[in-house]
C-alpha cells in the first residue's frame, strides 16, 4: 500500500537576520529573528512525499535531479518524524509504518541556494508534507521545531504573515520555536519587490558562513547580545502599528549589520555586489526623503 502527500511552502525574507548557531546539530540560534512570509503563489517549493513498504531505500530528487539522501539535515528531519510516528503508531490509521521507505520529490520555482531562502521553503515544505503523511506534529509549533532541524530559517515558513523565531534557552531546543506575530491580512499595503542581481549559487552557504562567523567575528557577539533583542521589540511594535518609517529603518540597519558581520568574519564573506550596493544606496536615499524623490532611470552594468 502507498501513501502520498503533496504540499507547497513559501519563502520567507528575514528583516531581523538569523546568523550564528549555539548548537550546530539541533540548529539553535544565537539570536532571535523575524521575517515576512511571501504569498504561496509566488516563490515556493512544491514537495511530494510517498511512502511504500516495497521501496528499497529512501530517496530524494531536487529540481529533477537525484540528490544524496545521506544529507545530514534530511536525515535529521526523517529521523525526528519517524520517532514521533513510532510513538503514535498504535492509533494512526492510514499512516505509513515508520519502517516504510519514503521517496521525496521537490521543485523550487526560483533559484536554489542563491540567497533566496530555498532551504527555508524547501525544509518547511518537506517537514510539513512528512508530518501530514505520518500524521504527526499535533501543533504548528511542533512542526516549526521539526522544520528547524532541517534549516533554521525554515521554521518561520510554517506560518504566513510576520513571524518571529524565538531563540529559546533550553539546551534541547524545546523552546526554540517560530510564532506568528501578525497574520498576512494585517498589513496588506506591504509589497515585496525581489530584485535578482545574481542567480548563481552563493560561494559561501549560509550554514558554512555563519559557522565561520561564530568562530572568528567579535562583532557577532555584540550583535546577538546587545543589538538584536531591542531590535526584535522595536520591529514588532512597528509592524503592529504599521509604522513603515520605523520598520524600514530597522530593516535596513539590520541588513547592513548582517553584511558588516560577514565582513568581520575571517576570511571575510561577501554577499553584496556593486548592483546590490547601488540598490541599497538608492533605497536609503528614497526612504530618507519619505518616498518623495522621483526615481527617473537606473542603469547598471552587470558583468
Ligand atoms: N525544495 C527543497 N527541498 C529540500 N531541500 C532543499 C530544497 N531547496 C533547497 N534545499 C536545500 O537547501 C540548500 C540551499 O540552502 P542555502 O542556505 O545554501 O541557500 P538558500 O536557502 O537559497 O539561501 P539563504 O539561506 O541565504 O536564503 C540546497 O543545497 C538544498 O540542500
Ligand atoms: C541570511 C539568512 O537568510 C540566513 C539563513 O540561514 P539558513 O536558515 O539557510 O541556515 P541553516 O540553519 O544553516 O540552514 C538570514 C535569515 O533567514 O534569517
UniProtKB/TrEMBL annotation:
This is Diphosphomevalonate decarboxylase. It catalyses: (R)-5-diphosphomevalonate + ATP = isopentenyl diphosphate + ADP + phosphate + CO2. Residues 192-295 form the Mvd1 C-terminal domain. One of its GO terms (cellular component) is cytosol. Belongs to the diphosphomevalonate decarboxylase family. One of its GO terms (biological process) is sterol biosynthetic process. Residues 9-178 form the Diphosphomevalonate decarboxylase-like N-terminal domain. It comes from the Eukaryota. Pfam families: MDD_C, MVD-like_N. The keyword Transmembrane helix does not apply. Its EC number is 4.1.1.33. It comes from Capsaspora owczarzaki (strain ATCC 30864). Keywords: ATP-binding, Lipid biosynthesis, Lipid metabolism, Lyase, Nucleotide-binding, Steroid biosynthesis, Steroid metabolism, Sterol biosynthesis, Sterol metabolism. One of its GO terms (molecular function) is diphosphomevalonate decarboxylase activity.
Amino acid at each position: 500500500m502507498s501513501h502520498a502527500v503533496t504540499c507547497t511552502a513559501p519563502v520567507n525574507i528575514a528583516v531581523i537576520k538569523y546568523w550564528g548557531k549555539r548548537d550546530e546539530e539541533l540548529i539553535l540560534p544565537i539570536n532571535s529573528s523575524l521575517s515576512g512570509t511571501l504569498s504561496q503563489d509566488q516563490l515556493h517549493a512544491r514537495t511530494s512525499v510517498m511512502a511504500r513498504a516495497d521501496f528499497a531505500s529512501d530517496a530524494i530528487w531536487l529540481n529533477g535531479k537525484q540528490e544524496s539522501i545521506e544529507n545530514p539535515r534530511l536525515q535529521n528531519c526523517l529521523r525526528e518524524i519517524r520517532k514521533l510516528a513510532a510513538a503514535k503508531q498504535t492509533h494512526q490509521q492510514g499512516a505509513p509504518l515508520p519502517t516504510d521507505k519514503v521517496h521525496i520529490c521537490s521543485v523550487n520555482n526560483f533559484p536554489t541556494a542563491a540567497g533566496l531562502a530555498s532551504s527555508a521553503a524547501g525544509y518547511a515544505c518537506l517537514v510539513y508534507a512528512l508530518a501530514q503523511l505520518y500524521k504527526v506534529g499535533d501543533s504548528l509549533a511542533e512542526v516549526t521545531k521539526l522544520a528547524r532541524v532541517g534549516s533554521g530559517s525554515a521554521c518561520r515558513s510554517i506560518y504566513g504573515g510576520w513571524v518571529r523565531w524565538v531563540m529559546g534557552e533550553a539546551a534541547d531546543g524545546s523552546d526554540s520555536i517560530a510564532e506568528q506575530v501578525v497574520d498576512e491580512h494585517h498589513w496588506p499595503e506591504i509589497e515585496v519587490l525581489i530584485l535578482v542581481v545574481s542567480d548563481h549559487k552563493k560561494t559561501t552557504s549560509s550554514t558554512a558562513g555563519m559557522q565561520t562567523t561564530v568562530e572568528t567575528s567579535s562583532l557577532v557577539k555584540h550583535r546577538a547580545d546587545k543589538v538584536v533583542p531591542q531590535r526584535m521589540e522595536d520591529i514588532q511594535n512597528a509592524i503592529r502599528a504599521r509604522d513603515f518609517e520605523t520598520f524600514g529603518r530597522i530593516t535596513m540597519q539590520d541588513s547592513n549589520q548582517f553584511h558588516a558581520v560577514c565582513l568581520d568574519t575571517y576570511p571575510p564573506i561577501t554577499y553584496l555586489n556593486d548592483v546590490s550596493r547601488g540598490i541599497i544606496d538608492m533605497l536609503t536615499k528614497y526612504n530618507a526623503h519619505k518616498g518623495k524623490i522621483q526615481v527617473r532611470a537606473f542603469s547598471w552594468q552587470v558583468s
